[in-house]
Amino acid sequence: MTNNMLHIVADETIWNIMLVCGMALSLVFTGILIPQILLIAFRKKLFDEPDGRKIHHSTVPRLGGIAFEHVILFSFFILLVLDINSGRYLLSNELQSHTLELSVSVCSLILLYLVGIADDLVGVKYRAKFVVQITCGILFLVGGLSISDCHGIFGIHQLPSFLSIPFSIVMVVFIINAINLIDGIDGLASGLSGVALLFYTYIFYQLGEYLYALISITTLGTIIPFFYYNVFGNPEKHRKIFMGDSGSLTIGLILCLLSFKIANLDMSLHPETSVYNPLVLAFIPLMIPCMDVVHVFIHRVRHHKNPFLPDKNHIHHKLLRMGMSQRSSLLLILVLSALFMVGFILLSQYVNINIVFIVYIIIYTGLNCWMSHKIKGIEGK
Questions:
Q1: What is the mean pLDDT of residues 3-31?
Q2: Does the pTM of the predicted model rise above 0.90?
């Protein structure tokens, strides 16, 4: 084995260690921070009060998202310090190669986090949220993060800039809101995001994009302790917490960053993934929340309601109205998400991607129609 090959193997080993450490650090720090957030929330009476639209029936703090941004950045920079002190400069060199896109991503993250905290504490109108989300989309464009090629989806390939620019901004706003709006029952937003992050970690690792694999797995490590407190925490013992807008907006933006990055990678350079459509790998992990938003939006418009005001027509609301428990609904949606994702990716190798996409829409629409019919039967009795 030549010295160059030994060096490559050594670098890959260090990246593997870094990925494990990134997840471990975020797991530990989030696990430490959430109980402290709970303590402050109960002392200062910062609760998400139950009402007619919400599922929970007791006062629960909604400040879990405070931990996300801080822990991710803290864990990341600890690894950067260790990388520099070791003299390897693997992480620091990767950061230099992606300085612009990561800088605008952190700026966007800070903006959304501040809006999310304000909404969790005092409430923010949806118009103000949209303005900030559009600003984040513009920042993405400034950083070179855009969707300029649809890779044959519906016969569309390269997009001219006058279409690529607004389309990219709309996609940023769309994905952020998809994660925000799917956060309706315990563990759903974090569970679906966790499935997507696990997938993105694997794809980036396979492509040798270790920096983005590190971002993905560190975010995943942050979500896991929150998922435990959110799903299994006992509100009577002050052990339950919601992520709030500060959390859902933060995770939504990180998923935007990761999906946009995959959509812009040249898959032909990587034999392991060259058979896959980049847009499929980028966005299929997010299809359940994205399709849910489209379905709810269309439903509100058809019934002459404000499409931006909340209601109880999301997929999880329908499952609950059918008599399923929160945890059963959560498990079913997570399983559906994983099955759709794996099935879509495998089928896209052998069947025209547009046919697979249309079949997916038909299946999802049919499922929603069946649930609506079932609910009418149950509520009509």
A1: 83
A2: yes
